[in-house]
Recover the amino acids of this structure.
């Protein structure tokens, strides 16, 4: 649906998805994978002696 058609039908709240966090949709798996990545990077950095 185009922007003009959405305005004609009265649908509001249409916006482009930017890939950022969604409103009120917490995904547990996404959080766990994110924190796992942080831990793996921290271990790699300390093992290589970069920090």
């Amino acid at each position: 649906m185009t922007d003009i058609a959405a305005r004609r039908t009265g649908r509001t709240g249409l916006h482009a998805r930017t890939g950022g966090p969604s409103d009120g949709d917490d995904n547990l798996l996404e959080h766990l994978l994110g924190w796992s990545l942080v831990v793996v990077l921290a271990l790699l950095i300390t093992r290589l002696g970069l920090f």
Summary: The mean pLDDT is 77. The two ends are 51 Å apart (CA to CA). Residues 28-48 form the longest helix (21 residues). DSSP finds two helices and no strands in the chain.
